[in-house]
Design brief:
It contains 17 helices and 4 strands. The protein is 60% helix and 2% strand. It is mainly alpha-helical and 419 residues long. It folds into 2 domains: 11-63, no CATH class; 84-415, Farnesyl Diphosphate Synthase, CATH 1.10.600.10. The strands form 2 sheets. Strands 1-2 form a two-stranded antiparallel sheet. The chain has a two-stranded antiparallel sheet with strand order 3-4. Belongs to the FPP/GGPP synthase family.
């Protein structure tokens, strides 16, 4: 029997009470319960299709789904050229990804399989079926769309999308251990339930499974794809290593911090796009442009993540208020403020770089000083600049308008998210 067995969260969509189903414009994502049709939320992280909407709010039986596709390889949209919203793209990507992702985890040794299934939200700590969120899965969605952007099919890039998601979750399992984080996606972290050793080993298994997913595909693109992912993982590790080293330093520059974030977060998003282009049969130039597109989005993603780590709503992010400041993390807004040569930046340095732990009031004061020194505004402006540059990279690829619009929708989601 598979690790998820007859998991009701997989087989049907009535595992939680229906959330409110009001709607905004078709392109607007809301952090609450409202999303573009046909998607709504069960929880703040979980997207769900229209199958469990109240009957009056469902699409008529004779109206085809806007994101309907006969298989992973081609479009079957009722309106040719119509671009899907970010929520529709993520729902489509998740439907393609999850069966293959679960198969990859099922092939792991039993002890590791249980930890991985818990981390993905498929099982609880006792191995019972669960309906936790597996995250937004933006990286594999980028991989699938990148393949389409160069004229290929999503099915050709599905193994690469699985590999990217496995590699990403390898990094999350290890990050949680290194950072001592107790929650992720509104659930306990794997290490806090199964122990650090088990979580590290599960992360190792996910990384091995990522390369296995690529190597199992009989394609001439496999050697290049393996090199792309391998280089991205090495960059990710280097970025994480630098991030840890920054904790012991008081002289971190903004350029160093940007380079660290580019490796830690940008490298894997860049690889996700490059892998899609490679598996989709794109040219070397298209692959390079899409890699640059993903790297810029990755750095923008990190900037937004750092802003949320200070000013995010705990009810939405699942993390304590000012979570990054309690650990005195050298995030991008913090370093921008520390190096601002302003009175607020100098006061922040006296407070933030001392040996003693910060009290609750001092953490709140640190957040105010980062804002006053310009760290918050700089991070938001730099993310916007990166988004503009990424758009130029995408335009140079020559993707069809619908696919380009869908990639842009994901880019906006990355840079305007609240969790």
């Amino acid at each position: 029997m598979s690790v998820w067995g007859d998991d009701p969260a997989v087989l049907r969509c009535d595992h939680r009470p229906p959330a409110p189903t009001h709607r905004h414009s078709k392109d607007e994502l809301c952090s609450e319960a409202c999303l573009p049709a046909p998607f709504h939320r069960h929880s703040k992280d979980e997207l769900c299709s229209e199958a469990c909407l109240p009957a009056d709010d469902r699409r008529p039986e004779d109206e085809p789904r806007a994101d309907a596709r006969p298989d992973a390889g081609g479009r079957d949209d009722p309106l040719p050229g119509r671009a899907r919203t970010a929520a529709e793209v993520l729902g489509w990507s998740r439907r393609l990804l999850d069966p293959a992702l679960r198969d990859a985890v099922e092939r792991m040794p039993k002890e590791i399989r249980g930890v991985a299934a818990f981390h993905f939200g498929w099982r609880d700590e006792r191995g019972r079926p669960a309906s936790g969120s597996g995250g937004k899965a933006i990286r594999p969605a980028l991989t699938l769309l990148a393949a389409e952007a160069v004229g290929g099919t999503a099915s050709a890039a599905l193994p690469a999308a699985v590999a990217v998601e496995l590699a990403h979750n390898f990094s999350l399992l290890h990050d949680d251990v290194m950072d001592g984080d107790l929650t992720r996606r509104h659930r306990p972290t794997a290490w806090s339930v199964f122990g650090a050793n088990a979580a590290v080993l599960a992360g190792d298994a996910l990384l091995a499974a990522a390369f296995e997913a690529l190597a199992d595909e009989p394609s001439p693109a496999v050697p290049r794809a393996v090199r792309i992912l391998g280089r991205a993982v090495l960059d990710l590790v280097a970025g994480q290593s630098a991030d840890l080293a920054f904790e012991e330093r008081t002289d971190v520059t903004l350029d160093e911090c940007l380079a660290m974030a580019g490796r830690k977060t940008g490298a894997l998003l860049g690889a996700a796009c490059a892998l899609g282009a490679t598996c989709g049969g794109g040219t070397t130039g298209q692959s390079a442009r899409l890699r640059a597109y993903g790297e810029r989005l990755g750095l923008a993603f990190q900037l937004v993540d750092d802003l949320l780590g200070i000013w995010g709503d705990p009810d939405v992010t699942g993390k304590p208020v000012h979570s990054d400041l309690h650990s005195r993390k050298k995030s991008l807004p913090v370093v921008a403020a520390l190096t601002s040569a302003t009175p607020a930046g100098d006061e922040l340095a006296d407070l933030y770089l001392r040996d003693e732990a910060l009290t609750g009031d001092e953490v709140s004061r640190a957040a105010d000083l980062i804002d006053a020194a310009g760290g918050r505004a700089w991070a938001a402006a730099h993310a916007a600049t990166l988004l503009t540059q990424a758009h130029a990279d995408l335009a140079a690829v020559g993707a069809d308008p619908a696919t380009a619009a869908e990639l842009d929708a994901l880019a906006r989601l990355i840079t305007h998210r609240r969790h």
